[in-house]
């Protein structure tokens, strides 16, 4: 398994990456890689964000589902702004790796949003996937990137609204992290 | 809004289209709700003002035999506003099939031709890349900087190009913004600049270059 930390643009620094990697190392010995366009001062391994098509911010997470994603092993992505307070890996490792898994924000079930709010109950602050197994996550998005990035405020809403085939981690994940 | 566009266009074209979309999204899956918002965004007063800016600054440079190409025409506002002022053939290129279909429903002028094609193919086609061509792209912020540079590098040196970009880098779909007009010009191949300007709004700036 590989651990991926995404850094794009200037919202987060190399120090944020290095610190998050340090926290994750307390709970696993998997290789940790930074998916970034700017590796300056990042002290962990790098996997470059593909240059084409150019995406902004969190939309770069979707590169993980491309058929040319350079990593073959199972992967878990952690956002840089989540606080890991207990070992999340027992929860992560027991998923069905045939489909991507996300955090379920179950409390959002009770919110009374209308369909065209495109609200979502999933959260990609942590997600786990097997590269090259679910190319539709990228392909549907890539058919109309400009429209999709206008329509959805983030990849969670895109994945939810497109009714893609995903799973969610056991709710115990919420006891291991602070969003 | 009607300062630049005739009220009859909204009465006869825009409002019926929005009504059609509302009804269609109730019963069908051809379109989604967001198309209604996307079309409304096209008619944002700032969008209209910036397209009128193109018309005002470009008209002195246009000859009656010039063919005009609009790249990334969205739902056709740029083409429509040009056609309100000139009879030249206007070819509107768009790679979003839904935009093409909805633009066709909005079309009010016979001199507009709408193509579901990538407009940047113009630069790679010796028949299309002619000197009597005016090429307009008001959405450079949506186009990769290197792709734009590469395409413009192949431009016929006699053809006229009109480009707009902006400094709204916080918008997710904007992959090629610039902090100033000079930075925008620096990102382009060397061309003879015929006009350059900045339109300052309360929350952003839009830049325009007319060049050969």
Could you walk me through the main structural features you see in this protein, from its secondary elements to its overall organization?
The complex is a heterodimer of chains A (179) and B (212). By secondary structure, chain A is of the alpha/beta class. Chain A has a single domain, classed as Spore Coat Polysaccharide Biosynthesis Protein SpsA, Chain A. Chain A has helices spanning 14-25, 89-93, 136-142, 145-151, 155-161, and strands at 2-7, 31-36, 45-48, 75-78, 83-84, 101-104, 122-129, 167-168, 177-178. In chain A, strand 1, helix 1 and strand 2 form a beta-alpha-beta unit. In chain A, 30% of the residues are buried. Chain B has one domain: Vaccinia Virus protein VP39 (Rossmann fold, 3-Layer(aba) Sandwich), CATH 3.40.50.150. In chain B, 36% of the residues lie in helices and 19% in strands. Chain B has helices at 7-27, 34-42, 45-58, 77-83, 97-106, 145-153, 181-186; strands spanning 67-71, 90-93, 112-115, 133-137, 160-166, 193-200, 205-211. In chain B, helix 6 links the parallel strand 4 (133-137) and strand 5.
């Amino acid at each position: 398994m590989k651990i991926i930390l995404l850094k794009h643009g200037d919202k987060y620094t190399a120090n944020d990456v290095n610190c998050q990697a340090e926290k994750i190392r307390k709970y696993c010995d998997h290789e940790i890689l930074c998916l970034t366009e700017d590796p300056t001062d990042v002290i962990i391994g790098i996997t470059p964000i593909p240059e084409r098509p150019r995406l902004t911010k969190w939309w770069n997470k979707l590169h993980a589902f491309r058929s040319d994603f350079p990593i073959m092993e199972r992967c878990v992505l952690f956002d840089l702004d989540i606080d890991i307070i207990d070992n999340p890996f027992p929860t992560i490792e027991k998923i069905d790796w045939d489909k991507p898994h996300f955090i379920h924000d179950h409390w959002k079930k009770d919110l009374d949003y209308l369909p065209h709010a495109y609200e979502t109950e999933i959260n990609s602050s942590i997600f786990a996937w097997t590269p090259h197994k679910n190319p539709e996550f990228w392909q549907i998005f890539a058919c109309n990137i400009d429209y999709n990035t206008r329509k959805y405020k983030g990849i969670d809403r895109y994945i939810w609204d497109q009714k893609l085939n995903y799973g969610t981690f056991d709710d115990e994940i919420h006891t291991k992290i602070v969003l | 809004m009607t300062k630049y566009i005739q009220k009859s266009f909204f009465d006869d074209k825009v409002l019926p289209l929005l009504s059609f979309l509302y009804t269609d999204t109730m019963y069908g899956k051809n379109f989604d709700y967001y198309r209604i918002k996307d079309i409304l965004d096209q008619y944002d007063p700032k969008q209209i003002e910036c397209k009128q800016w193109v018309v005002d600054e470009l008209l002195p440079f246009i000859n009656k035999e010039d063919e005009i190409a609009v790249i990334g025409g969205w739902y056709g506002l740029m083409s429509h506003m040009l056609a309100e002022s000139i009879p030249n053939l206007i070819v509107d290129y768009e790679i979003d099939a839904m935009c093409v279909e909805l633009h066709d429903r909005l079309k009010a002028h016979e001199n507009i031709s709408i193509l579901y094609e990538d407009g940047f193919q113009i630069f790679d086609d010796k028949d299309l890349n002619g000197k009597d061509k005016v090429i307009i792209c008001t959405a450079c912020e949506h186009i990769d900087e290197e792709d734009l540079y590469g395409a413009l590098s192949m431009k016929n040196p006699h053809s006229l190009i009109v480009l707009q970009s902006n400094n709204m880098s916080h918008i997710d779909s904007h992959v090629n913004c610039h902090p100033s007009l000079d930075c925008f010009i620096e990102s382009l191949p060397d061309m003879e600049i015929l006009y350059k300007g900045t339109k300052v709004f309360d929350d952003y700036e839009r830049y325009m270059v007319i060049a050969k």
